[in-house]
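Duplicate of #3305? Posting structure anyway:
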């Protein structure tokens, strides 16, 4: 119930119809790529955290880097998926898009770990929620009561993280400015990732 409360509070704040809380932004990105069955990305910024290209490689997604600088968020070109790791402000939701947030170190909600997906439909919410929670259907309180599972992952937000995120969100709402801080990432195109 605590996780769902955080999801509803974050949805109201961001203007998103639905929110799926996750254990981190990288896993949120992974689930969105899986949900949309992405096989190729036109390009993505090379200035990002190393886990982002690693997840694209893990999923076998064909991509090229671009040299786009960004503040707050960037789009995986040719998709509707956004890495919004450094952005959090009222009414930030983009209709029809999937936006992945981070609550890690130095992020607007500095919970040390956590993430979320802003999504627009109940269908997206239910599919991504199941995917984040081991393929479990939320209507079953005991997983053993469920007889058929869709492929899922253990990427759900733990209750204690959701509780802390709720508290941090309430404090964050009282800020006068939601402008993202400029943060420089290493150029991942200069790093060799062995697969």
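Output from current build:
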């Amino acid at each position: 119930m605590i996780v769902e409360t955080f999801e509803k509070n974050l949805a109201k704040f961001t203007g998103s119809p639905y929110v799926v809380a996750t254990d981190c932004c990288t896993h949120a990105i992974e689930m969105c790529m899986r949900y949309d069955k992405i096989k190729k990305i036109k390009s993505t910024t090379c200035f990002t955290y190393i886990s982002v290209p690693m997840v694209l490689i893990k999923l076998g997604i064909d991509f090229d880097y671009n040299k786009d600088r960004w503040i707050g968020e960037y789009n995986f070109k040719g998709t509707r998926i956004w890495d919004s790791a450094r952005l959090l402000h009222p009414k930030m939701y983009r209709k029809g898009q999937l936006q992945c947030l981070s609550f890690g170190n130095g992020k607007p909600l500095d919970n040390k770990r956590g993430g979320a997906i802003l999504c627009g439909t109940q269908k997206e919410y239910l599919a991504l929620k199941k995917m984040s929670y081991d393929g479990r259907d939320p209507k079953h309180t005991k997983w053993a009561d469920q007889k058929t599972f869709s492929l899922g992952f253990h990427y759900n937000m733990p209750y204690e993280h959701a509780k802390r995120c709720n508290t941090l969100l309430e404090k964050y709402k009282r800020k006068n400015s939601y402008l993202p801080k400029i943060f420089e990432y290493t150029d991942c195109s200069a790093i060799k990732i062995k697969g």
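Confirmed duplicate; merging threads. The longest strand covers residues 40-45. The mean pLDDT is 95.
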